[in-house]
Write a structure and sequence with these properties.
The structure is a homodimer of 912-residue chains. With 912 residues, chain A is mostly helical. Among the domains of chain A are: 213 residues, Orthogonal Bundle (Clc chloride channel); 231 residues, Clc chloride channel (Orthogonal Bundle), CATH 1.10.3080; 137 residues, CBS-domain, CATH 3.10.580. Chain A is built from 40 helices and eight strands. The first copy, chain A, is elongated and about 115 Å long. The two termini of chain A are 54 Å apart. The relative contact order of chain A is 0.12. At the A-B interface, helix 11, helix 12, strand 1, helix 13 and helix 22 of A face helix 11, helix 12, strand 1, helix 13 and helix 22 of B. Strand 1 of chain A pairs antiparallel with strand 1 of chain B. Chains A, B: Keywords: CBS domain, Cell membrane, Cell projection, Chloride, Chloride channel, Ion channel, Ion transport, Membrane, Phosphoprotein, Postsynaptic cell membrane, Repeat, Synapse, Transmembrane, Transmembrane helix, Transport, Voltage-gated channel. Chains A, B: InterPro entries: CBS_dom_sf, Cl-channel-2, Cl-channel_core, Cl_channel_volt-gated, ClC. Chains A, B: One of its GO terms (molecular function) is voltage-gated chloride channel activity.
Chain lengths: 912, 912
């Protein structure tokens, strides 16, 4: 199960698993892998490779069709295309209903309710099985112990192993990752089907073991996974998930924006569903997910969360009714406190004390958890040993924890017999236990008996429970299995509240209320307050108050709960980051931290202080070789397009994929075949007109680079001689004026766009395209091809068919860090160009911003891509493959070792 | 009480009051008023006026001190200034504690709880008085009727008259206005002390009359008023409300941003407090206020709302306990439904029906309300009559409504005896009334008796109640008094729910549950669902569900309520805008509408299509006369600073107030006195050196404009000859480099900055300044002064001491409307410059954006200023006064009719 593969890589994996540290290593591995493939593939024929390029081009044809505005390609399309357009539209109209938001949300809610219920059901069976085993072996304590300990160890080990093998990303809570993803940074591998399976099964096993782990964090992740997969699935049906094409929308970048924004909204709703169906708490779910995952929240997205979470919670509870677990739909942990006099005004100080103490406790919990992780990381010896045996750590921890809770052993002093759920139910009980301290005859019914011990007081049991569970939970959530911390913390908080409540009850046996009726103190109410306060302190949220009301089905303690939660938050937030932020830091996730108003020194930092001045850019008059170089060196998603290297006037930005498509088009097989065809025609023509020296005027151009000239004229209206100093910008980027357009149109390659259109509307373009190409024979040798490609690379790039975003986000150099941070947070940017009087002088990305805010350089740059790109456009997103492809191309050139003339203008550009 | 003043103005006022239409008329009136003053003041001496200018300058000295970065004025200050700096700092440290957010929020919560409680108390007394009067006169029905009718008529008429006289802005709910203000548009007069007083007293009287009006909308407004006034009050103590000066913060514009952002956050919290202390519903209050007022919500602001609303709700309920109204803190409309089986699963369809019907009902309510307003506006005859007698409309409506509810009359069929609160309490009762249809002996206790009528069924009573109250409420909220619609709608919803519930109870007398125990249907639960659904439908919010839980103190019906609310919202949102959006449209408030994803045609619009191309700008080398002209013609808050009229390179933006300060400084008395002094010195010098022709080199400059030259050298490093073609930008705007700074510093006016410093730290600068000036005699004649001012106006502007925002928000011409809308919404912009390669080509403001989205031009431009500017910097914000001042100045020049040479460069600029 472990140990094979290179040691180094295993260690890295181990680290990922062990402490959930997100590192660049996977990406490095991918690159190494690509390099290996490249080397091994070096011996494949050049012809094969260019065919690959061709296919690549066709794959992208659809995308590349999203041409520049007002491009009248429909008019150029043949008649049958019109029919297909109509058919497609009709189809779209029918299918688009399926893609509507509310259907998506209902499906999501239904699915998640089912998943939640099934997981709960399985967990219950697992726990029952353990009880049954333990109960059946009551003749022999040792056997009992073995059964008690082995069962969770096996389950946790299986969970850890399974998760690790299938999808290491499923480890942990998932909320930190969702927070990062919703911020706009894609952690691609966190939203795959594998992760979904690993998370669901891993979670079921982990919780079935009875360890102090929670369900709620993983459910946020599972719901997001569900949404991502559902979105992917529904995009098969088309609807609004469809890429644009015939809608006639001018701004192409907008569709991406729309999809992106919609996906973010759906993911946010999914987070709400996750909490909602986990606790049957729709309102609390929505609020908790907002507080935990968002920085800025769009109110228009509000109803989505409510709708989906309510539906999900409803189905979740209805399943319970249908399964005869419940008579009707009620709260998960229903309480029965009295309604007429829930608490006295004079009890409020006690509630406030619970709040403040919970604040300190919550901060301590976060600190303790981080301490454990850091301790394990630092201890080299332990570390190395555990790395080798990667399932040892989970097994060991589980062994220790389950040994301590063994009911006949130490467990008898801390209600070790009870499962988390049972413990919570007993803690929220509306009867008072402390009476037992005075009157022994008080009847502990059912599970509440576990809290009673013949020798020790119930107070001691509670204190032991709190202290033991506290560090046990902090330790348990470091086990590399899918698990959350909310529920354990909630139970500890409830126990703490109960402790205070019981103390109060013992102190004031007849209640505090002085005049008239006796209203005894309800310790269960204190437990509710404590649970909300401690979980609020750990997660830095206020909405745990709402969750608590929905969980207990009673809202009578609203003011004590609110006061305690707010106090707990105030204390905890001033001491420690929230558990999720702490995990983000531990895992080194690429999250943009908050910038408080308090940091005055941040106001002094300007964009010019943090921006990267060495911007990767392409010029309007660059050649394909420059494009190639830029693509090989940089990693940014988009590249800046400037007028020229001298002026540096920013014209727009182009997506990397677009450029790659341009390049592969230029070097593709189709072009080469066309070249061959033209060469043949040219050859023929030259033979026929060799005696006719009429075309003398442009002979000067033709003398040196004959072939190149011919292709150039066909290709664009740009003059082939470069560099062109200070070319007017209008024709390339401004809205096409009526005067200039006609001069460009006739020169645009008709046949190309024709193929493209066919590609767009026909199901199998490859066959046709190949058929189209078969009339010429590819008789070029490898060396000829290389020479041809060299010439192609020296040509000037034709940006006509390229999607250019004409309005990339710009800042000026004096924009303050604070403003930049606000703009980045609000708009979810990943980078912005810095311009000075229209001149591009730098670029700021999330990375620089994060560095500037944190004042550190520890955070490694993780690939920054638009959110959900991974499951939105699976066809074009594999940028690594393309890079590899380009690498191959490049290496081939190197290996051919053609003497390449160094272009002076290029070196000039680089030096600037 | 009415009728005096010009008829035209009265009519306008009437219109404002009658239908709450927000028009520009007030501003027009202010301008007319200013013109009148100007004319009458024409005969005052010039000397007086320049003294006014001087004082104006001193007032602004503090602000003008916020100089450019790193200005080492502290080093130049005398020693006693150091001491004062220290003292000020110590003071600041002590006082800054006062300015902390949580203290502000506690004060706000406390204040609002008190206001809410006092208002409630007064309303209760008013209603009791009416009952007492009505009850005491039971011998004579006519007298009873008179008492029943006169009382509300008098109260409403008083409320309307009082509000109208004191602050017409207090009319209505206030939520639409808060929505607009939180969007970033200032409706200045909506946040004044007068409005506060008018709103509180008007609301108390209006609700005391017993009309179907609500408290919640006005309370949102009152809380915001409270926050605004509290903020103003606390700024007297300094703290973070203080303008910057010694904090060493580079970016001055940032402080404004910070303050603005903070004020917006505080206002948002205040809205939450408003709802929270009105219903004792902190969570619902926060959510409701977010849903109703925000588009994008900053989660970091979340806790503020919770904190303040919880504190406020707590105090509000504690006051009730202290007043012996309650035994302990409980919900406002506590229900006592059974906990163990709140509802059966099979009852859910009935709840869904309530939801859908409420959706239609809510849309109908909004439509009906708009219809009434539009009908009243269109009927010219009624309109004119009502305009003349402005209090007649409220009185008439009140008369009709109270006549209909007269208990011995029609009121007996619709529980007319009950106040709104009593009706709600009885509707939420957990007993079933329908039994009475079968068994007559059922005991209606207390107020519930009002629903029983000897002749008619309880169902008829309920139906009549719903139908009558429906149109009565829609009519009542058009009365020009401070009033909300939430509570009336809530009661109607509860009645509708009760109706359905009673029907269900009559249909299934033994409940639906089949196996075992009999669980009778609880009609009160249906009432809760109906109340939440209808109020949710009218306001388009989901959070009414939470409010309902907090109001009733029970959350057991969470799923039915959520389902009904979501269905009601889905139906209502597809039919009509929310009540608040409807009022925004009726009142024509400057609110930016939402842009749905569905409007594909919007994607085709770009910024270049909607932008205003005729931008008001100033150039770096303009003279004061240009400044003057620009200030006189434009109304924009900030002006663009461009390099030159030829290049149009955008350098930054300058606030209007800054420019006005520059201009008044240039033309101020201090400068003139200095000029006189220098002229005297010059005169003396010339007499002494008349025989010494040493300074020949700069004689050419001195020949024509001797005096001007001297002033110029004193003033700045700019050469006085203009226009300066293509001046390098660096020294003016870029971060001051070390090389250039020393050349500028020695020429800066030492004495001026000295005065400024004194002004900053001393309490009474005027005395000193006057003393300073008294050593020269102002012996210039009016004509001389006018000439001098003419010369001053021709000088080039020195922007050195001017706050320039170096990074105003920029868009490019191809930015789509959608992106623009998103950016404007997210960042709360009011305008953005459109640049093309750094050149300013246009400006887009909220107005253009709104027009483009609405496709209409009906919305008149309301003055767009940053939020809360009205109470933030009261010293510098009186732009109208300053404009008047400038107008005066200008008119004086005109009246003096000096031959003014036309500068060719200026006309050149204008022609471009």
């Amino acid at each position: 199960m472990a140990g094979d593969g290179s040691d180094q890589r295993a260690l890295q994996y181990e680290q990922t698993l062990m402490y959930g540290r997100y590192t660049q290593e996977l990406g490095v591995y991918a690159k190494e892998e690509a390099a290996r493939l490249r080397e091994s593939g070096q011996r494949r024929s050049v012809r094969d490779r260019s065919r690959t390029l061709d296919l690549l081009e066709y794959d992208k044809g659809r995308c590349a069709k999203c041409r520049r505005s007002g491009y009248p390609y429909v008019l150029e399309a043949p008649a049958q295309d019109f029919i297909s357009v109509c058919t497609v539209r009709c189809q779209k109209f029918l299918i688009s209903r399926v893609g509507e938001d509310w259907i998506f949300l209902i499906l999501l809610g239904l699915l998640m309710a089912l998943v939640s219920w099934v997981v709960d059901f399985c967990i219950a069976i697992c726990l029952q099985a353990q009880k049954w085993m333990y109960g059946g072996l009551d003749s022999n304590v040792f056997l009992q112990y073995l059964a008690w300990v082995t069962y969770p160890v096996v389950l946790i080990t299986f969970s850890a192993g399974f998760t690790q093998i299938l999808a290491p990303q499923a480890v942990g809570s998932g909320i930190p990752e969702m927070k990062t993803i919703l911020r706009g940074v894609v952690l691609k591998e966190y939203l795959t089907f594998k992760t979904f399976v690993a998370k669901v099964i891993g979670l079921t096993c982990a919780l079935g073991s009875g360890m102090p782990l929670g369900k709620e964090g993983p459910f946020v992740h599972i719901a997001s996974l569900c949404a991502a997969l559902l979105s992917k699935f529904m995009s098969l049906f088309g609807g609004i998930y469809e890429e644009p094409g015939v809608t006639g929308i001018k701004d192409i970048g907008l569709i991406g924006m729309k999809n992106e924004s919609r996906n973010i909204e759906m993911l946010a709703a999914a987070c709400a569903v996750g909490v909602g169906c986990c606790f049957a708490a729709p309102i609390g779910g929505v609020l908790f997910s907002i507080e935990v995952t968002s920085t800025f929240f769009a109110v228009r997205n509000y109803w989505r969360g409510f709708f989906a979470a309510t539906f999900s919670a409803f189905i979740f509870r209805v399943l319970a009714v249908w399964n005869r677990d419940e008579e009707t739909i009620t709260a998960l942990f229903k309480t029965r406190f009295r309604l007429d006099f829930p608490f006295d005004l004079q009890e409020l100080p006690a509630f406030a004390v619970i709040g403040i103490a919970s604040g300190f406790g919550g901060a301590l919990f976060v600190y303790l958890n981080r301490l454990i992780v850091q301790f394990m990381r630092k201890q080299k010896v332990i570390n190395k040993f555990l790395m080798k045996k990667r399932l040892l750590y989970p097994a060991l921890v589980t062994l220790v924890l389950s040994t301590l809770t063994f009911p006949p052993g130490f467990g008898q002093f801390m209600a070790g017999k009870l499962t988390q759920k049972e413990a919570l139910v007993t803690l929220l009980d509306n009867r008072t236990w402390a009476k037992q301290g005075i009157a022994e005859e008080f009847d502990y019914i059912g599970n509440a008996q576990a809290w009673r011990h013949p020798q020790v007081n119930v107070f001691v049991t509670l204190v032991l429970f709190i202290v033991m569970k506290f560090w046990m939970s902090a330790l348990a959530i470091t086990i590399p299995v899918p698990s959350g911390a909310f529920m354990p913390v909630f139970v500890i908080g409830a126990a703490f509240g109960r402790l205070v409540g019981e103390s109060m009850a013992a102190w004031f046996p007849d209640g505090i209320h002085t005049d008239g009726t006796i209203y005894p103190i309800v310790p269960g109410g204190y437990a509710v307050v404590g649970a909300a306060a401690l979980s609020g302190a750990v997660t830095h949220t206020v909405s745990t108050a709402v969750i608590v009301f929905e969980l207990t089905g009673q809202i009578s303690h609203i003011l004590p709960v609110m006061i305690a939660v707010i106090l707990a938050n105030a204390v905890a937030q001033s001491l420690q980051p929230s558990l999720y932020d702490s995990i983000i830091r531990i895992k080194k996730l690429p999250y943009l931290p908050e910038l408080g108003w308090g940091h005055h020194e941040k106001y002094n930092i300007r964009v010019e202080d943090i921006m990267v001045r060495d911007v990767r850019y392409i010029t309007l008059n660059c050649c394909y070789r420059d494009l190639h170089n830029v693509l090989l060196t940089g990693q940014l998603k988009t590249l800046a397009l400037v007028e020229s290297a001298e002026s540096m006037i920013l014209l727009g930005s182009i997506e990397r994929a677009q450029l790659q498509s341009l390049l592969s088009q230029q070097l593709g097989r189709a072009r080469r075949l066309q070249y061959i065809r033209e060469r043949a025609v040219e050859e023929k023509k030259r033979l026929s007109i060799v005696s006719d020296p009429a075309s003398d005027d442009n002979g000067s151009q033709r003398t040196s680079q004959e072939v190149r000239f011919q292709i150039s004229t066909e290709e664009s209206s740009f003059s082939p001689t470069r560099p062109v100093p200070h070319k007017p910008l209008k024709p390339a980027l401004k809205r096409p004026s009526v005067v200039e357009r006609p001069t460009e149109l006739p020169t645009s390659p008709h046949d190309h766009s024709g193929i493209g259109l066919k590609n767009l509307f026909c199901s199998s373009p490859d066959a046709e395209a190949l058929e189209d190409d078969e009339d010429v024979e590819d008789d070029m040798t490898i060396r000829e091809i290389a020479e041809w490609e060299e010439r192609q690379l020296d040509e000037q790039v034709n940006f006509n068919n390229c999607k250019i975003d004409p309005a990339p986000f710009q800042l000026v150099e004096r924009t303050s860090l604070h403003k930049t941070h606000t703009i980045f947070s609000l708009l979810g940017l990943d980078h912005a160009y810095v311009t000075s009087i229209g001149r591009l002088i730098g670029v700021v990305s999330l990375k620089e911003l994060r560095k500037a805010i944190e004042g550190s350089v520890t955070v490694k740059g993780v690939k920054v891509r638009p959110p959900l790109a991974s499951f939105r456009d699976s066809g074009t997103s594999s940028s690594e493959n393309e890079t590899t492809e380009l690498h191959k191309l490049w290496d081939r050139h190197k290996s051919m070792s053609l003497p390449r003339e160094s272009t002076p203008s290029e070196s000039e550009e680089k030096s600037q």
